[in-house]
DNA sequence: ATGGTCAAATTTGGATGCAACTGTTGACTC
DNA sequence: GAGTCAACAGTTGCATCCAAATTTGACCAT
C-alpha cells in the first residue's frame, strides 16, 4: 500500500464507490471532464482511474467517444463470486507451497487475536454492552487474515485477480457481514474453525487440502451471506 | 478491439514485447522519459502503458520513484501457467452454462476447418511439400477456438484474467507450439479430440464435465509443450 | 574506511492547451 | 415524410509545462 495516495488512486476509489452505491446509475455516461469537475481535479488522473475501472469491467466503452457505467446484472455479480471462490482455492494451493514459517506464525497470531475479540464480544453482548466497535475490529482481523493468506501465495498477479473479482461485491459485503455477525453468535465461530483448519493444511504443505478448505469456506461464507440478505 | 490503436496501446505492446524478448533485461530500470524518448512519443501515453504493465506484473515499483522490469523467475512462470489452467476450467464451466446455440455451432465450424487443415497438412507432408503456411493457419484456428470458447463464457472480467495469466508465456508459447506440431503428426490430433469432447460437454450444459475436460486439456497441452522445449 | 547528512539532479504526478475525431442535430433534398 | 449530408458542439488523446518529492552522489565527520 502506497503511503501517499495519488489523485488517480483517490479518483479510482471514489468513482468505484459511486458506482457501487448507485450514485452513478448503470448506463449513465461518464466523461473525463465531467468527472474531473465533479471531483475538483484535472482530467489527467481521472483518465487513469477510468482506464483501471474499464479493466475491472465497471465501465464500458460503447464507442471511441462514449464511456458509460457498465450494466452489472445480479447474475454477473454471482458469476464473479463464483470466480472468487475458484481463485481463493488457487491462492490456498499456492500458499501451501510457498508460505514461510514466519507467515504461518503470523496467521495463527491473527486468529488468536480474533478469538480474543470474539470472546470479548460475547462477553459484552451478555452484559448488554454495545459491541459495534469490537465487531468492526473483528472484521478487520478477518480482512487481515485474508490479506496474510494472499501474501503467503507469493503470487501478486493471482492476488490482483482475486481483488478484481471482489470489486463488485466488496462494498455491500462488509455491511452484510457486519449485520450477520451482530445477529448470530455462532456465525463467526464456525468460520474460525475452518480458518484454523486452513492454517493446519498450509503448515502441512498439503495444497490439495488447503484448496478444498478454502473453496468450501468461501462457498459457505457466500451462502451464509446470501441467506442473511 | 479498438479500430484505432492509441499511442498508449502501442507503447504497451512494444514495451511488453521488449521485455519478453529480453531487449529490456530483468531488473533494468525503466523511466517514463526514457521510454518516451525511445519510442519517440510524449511521456503521457508511456505512463498509461507502464500502469498497465504494472498491473500485469511485468514491471515493479521498488520505490515511489523507481520502476524496473520485474524479475520473472521460471518458477513464477510455472505458477502463472497453473493459474491459467484453473482459469480455463472456470471459463469452461461458465461457457457450459451461458453459451448460445449460435456460439456452439461456431465452435464446431472452427473445428471442422481445423480438421480440414490438419488433413491438408498431413497430405502435403506425405508429398514432401512445405507445410509452414498451413501450420500457422492451423494455429490461428486453435487460437480462434480458444477465443470463441472465452466468448461463450460471457464473463469479460474472467476472460481478462485468463489473458493476464498468459502475458508471460504467450510470446514463446506460440513458437514452441509451431515447432511441436511440425514434428509430431499426432500432436494436433489428440488435442482436437479433447476439443470435440469439450464442445459436446458445452452442448450438454454439463459444466462439471466441461471444467474437467478443459483442465485436463490445458495441463496436457502445457506438459507436452514443456517436453518439446 | 564507514556512516551520516545535505544538496543537486532526476523523476513522477498533475495541470493546461490544442488538434483530431466523433456523435448529434438540424437543414435540405428527393 | 423519410433519408442524407453537413455543420457544430463535445470529447478524447497527446504534448508541454510546472511543482513536489525522491534518488543519488558527494562531502564531511567520526
Structure description:
2 copies of one chain form a homodimer. The mean pLDDT of chain A is 90. In chain A, strand 2 (59-63) and strand 3 (66-69) form a beta hairpin. In chain A, strands 1-3-2 form a 3-stranded antiparallel beta sheet. The first copy, chain A, has 2 domains: 7-69, Winged helix-like DNA-binding domain superfamily/Winged helix DNA-binding domain (Arc Repressor Mutant, subunit A); 74-228, GntR ligand-binding domain-like (Four Helix Bundle (Hemerythrin (Met), subunit A), Up-down Bundle). With 229 residues, the first copy, chain A, is mostly helical. Chain A has helices spanning 7-20, 32-39, 43-56, 74-98, 101-126, 132-153, 156-166, 170-183, 185-204, 207-228; strands at residues 29-30, 59-63, 66-69. The interface between A and B is medium-sized, with 31 and 31 residues. The structure holds a DNA duplex (30 and 30 nucleotides). Chains A, B: It comes from Phytohabitans maris. Chains A, B: Residues 5-72 form the HTH gntR-type domain.
Task: Considering the chains and any ligands shown, give keywords for the structure.
homodimer, 229 residues, mainly alpha, Four Helix Bundle (Hemerythrin (Met), subunit A), 3 strands, DNA-binding
What is the CATH topology assignment of the largest domain in chain A? Four Helix Bundle (Hemerythrin (Met), subunit A)
Instruction: Give the beta-strand count of chain A.
Output: 3
Name the structural class of chain A. mainly alpha
**Second-tier CATH architecture of the largest domain in chain A:** Up-down Bundle
> Describe the biggest sheet of chain A?
3 strands, antiparallel
CATH superfamily of the largest domain in chain A: GntR ligand-binding domain-like
| Mean pLDDT over all positions of chain A | 90
- Our count of domains of chain A comes out at 2
Task: Indicate the percent of residues in helices of chain A.
Answer: over 70%
The CATH class label of the largest domain in chain A is Mainly Alpha
Return Rg of chain A in Å: 20 Å
Number of helices of chain A: 10
Question: What is the terminal separation of chain A in angstroms?
Answer: 32 Å
* Oligomeric state, counting identical vs distinct chains: homodimer
Q: H/E series of chain A, N to C? A: HEHHEEHHHHHHH
How large is the share of residues in beta strands of chain A? under 5%
List segments of chain A where confidence is low: pLDDT < 50 over at least 5 consecutive residues: none
Strand order of the largest sheet of chain A: 1-3-2
> How would you sum up the global shape of chain A?
globular
Largest interface summary = A-B, 31 and 31 residues
Amino acid at each position: 500500500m502506497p503511503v501517499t495516495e495519488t489523485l488517480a488512486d483517490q479518483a479510482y476509489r471514489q468513482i468505484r464507490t459511486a458506482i457501487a452505491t448507485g450514485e452513478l446509475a448503470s448506463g449513465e455516461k461518464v466523461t473525463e471532464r465531467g468527472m474531473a469537475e465533479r471531483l475538483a481535479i484535472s482530467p489527467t488522473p481521472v483518465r487513469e482511474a477510468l482506464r483501471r475501472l474499464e479493466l475491472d469491467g465497471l465501465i464500458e466503452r460503447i464507442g471511441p467517444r462514449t464511456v458509460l457505467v457498465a450494466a452489472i446484472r445480479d447474475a454477473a455479480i454471482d458469476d464473479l463470486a463464483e470466480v472468487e471462490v475458484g481463485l481463493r482455492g488457487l491462492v490456498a494451493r499456492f500458499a501451501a507451497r510457498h508460505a514461510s514459517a514466519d507467515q504461518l506464525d503470523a496467521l495463527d497470531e491473527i486468529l488468536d487475536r480474533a478469538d480474543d475479540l470474539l470472546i470479548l464480544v460475547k462477553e459484552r453482548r451478555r452484559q448488554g454492552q454495545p459491541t459495534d466497535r469490537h465487531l468492526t475490529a473483528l472484521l478487520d482481523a478477518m480482512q487481515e487474515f485474508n490479506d496474510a493468506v494472499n501474501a503467503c501465495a507469493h503470487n501478486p498477479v493471482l492476488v490482483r485477480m482475486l481483488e478484481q473479482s471482489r470489486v463488485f461485491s466488496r462494498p455491500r459485503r462488509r455491511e452484510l457481514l457486519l449485520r450477520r455477525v451482530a445477529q448470530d453468535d455462532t456465525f463467526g465461530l464456525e468460520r474460525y474453525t475452518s480458518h484454523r483448519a486452513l492454517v493446519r493444511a498450509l503448515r502441512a504443505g498439503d495444497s490439495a487440502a488447503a484448496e478444498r478448505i478454502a473453496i468450501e469456506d468461501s462457498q459457505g461464507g457466500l451462502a451464509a451471506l446470501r441467506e442473511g440478505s
